[in-house]
Amino acid sequence: MNVIEARHLWKEYGDNVVLENVSLAVKAGEFITVVGTSGCGKTTFLKLLLGVETATRGDLLLDGKPLPDEPNADRGIVFQRYSVFPHLNVLENVMLGAELAASPFWGRTFGKRRRAIREQAVAMLESVGLGTALLKYPSELSGGMQQRLALAQALIKKPRILLLDEPFGALDPGIRADMHQLILSIWRQTGLTIFMITHDLKEGFYLGTRLWVFDKRRHDPQAPNRFGATITYDIPLGHTDRTTLHTIQQSLGANHD
Amino acid sequence: MKRLINQRPSRAAQVLLGILPFALLLLAYLWASELRLAANPNDKLLPAFSSIGEAIWSMAFEADKRSGNYLLWVDTLASLQRLGLGVLLSALMGLVIGVANGAVPLFRAGLSPLVMALSLIPPMAILPVLFIVFGLGEVSKVALITIGIAPFLIRDMQQRVLELPEEQLIKAQTLGASSWQLILRVILPQVLPRLLDAVRLSLGSAWLFLIAAEAIAATEGLGYRIFLVRRYLSMDVILPYVLWITLLAFLTDYLLRVLTRRSFPWYYNGGKP
Ligand SMILES: Nc1ncnc2c1ncn2[C@@H]1O[C@H](COP(=O)(O)OP(=O)(O)O)[C@@H](O)[C@H]1O
Ligand SMILES: [Mg+2]
Question: Residue limits of the ABC transporter domain (chain A) (predicted)?
Answer without folding.
Answer: 4-241
